[in-house]
Amino acid sequence: MSLSDKIAVVTGAARGIGNAVAEIFLQNGAKVVLLDVNETAGKSLKAAFDRQYRQDRTLFLICDVESEEQIKAALQKTVETFGGIDILCNNAGILNEAEWEKTLSINLVGLVRVTFLALEHMNKLTRGRGGVVVNIASMAGLGPLVSCPVYTATKHGVVGFTRAMAAASAASGYGIRFNMVCPGCVQTDLFSNILDSLGQFSHLADATQKLSDASGVINASKVAECVLELVTDELKNGDALRVKPNGKKYMIFPAINY
């Protein structure tokens, strides 16, 4: 799948992984809609992209993934401005074990909400063009992060939702592929602040620090490269790409016979 003139929507786009994903999409010819709750960072990023890629290649919109109204408005504005949606990258997320309900709301409920609302514009059964959804999961979606049970639960949910949606789309004829990236520790604000976000599990901070020291830290651009791979490779559907500092690997899930 070529990204030339494709329309991509990225949530949590103002910083970190979302910023890197938006840039790699632009580098490969897409037009990108930047969604984020941080207006200052979002406008700053938009201005930087304007200088490098032309003003008409990006659109920044304030959007809280907990708000159905804001998501609907942002997606409608995307369609009105660019004519459709071809790619969705669900990146918005937090890690805060103390505010566990908000972590669930943003990381899992918000991701599902954005996906379903975007499908109204992308689904070939509802006159969409089809396309691809890539969700940012985590290594915590494949195995437990001992100090972050709620974050772990949300990322396991993202993995399960993505795999099920890939199968549902294929069976239903939506024309949309669903994939996920599962990175380890990424150099972002979320990672930098993790030891202050453990809530009742703060006594496990040392274990978290040892894990990050042992596994190493990934640059956000490496994660963005994996997102690009999952977008452009049309054979990928329901795939999980695990990313570590020393490389990447596709996960092989056990077959389940119901």
Overall description:
This protein is an alpha/beta fold. 45% of the residues lie in helices and 17% in strands. It contains eight helices and eight strands, in the order βαβαβαβαβαβαααββ. Strands 3-2-1-4-5-6-7-8 form an eight-stranded mixed sheet, sandwiched between helices. α1 crosses α8 and α4 runs parallel beside α5. The longest helix is centred in the middle third of the chain and has 24 residues. The mean pLDDT is 95.
Q: What structural keywords apply?
A:
258 residues, alpha/beta, 8-stranded mixed beta sheet
Mean pLDDT over all positions: 95
Number of strands: 8
The number of helical runs is: 8
Separation of termini? 33 Å
Radius of gyration: 17 Å
Coarse structural class: alpha/beta
Q: Order of strands across the widest beta sheet?
A: 3-2-1-4-5-6-7-8
Helix content: 40-55%
Residue windows where pLDDT falls under 50 for at least 5 positions: none
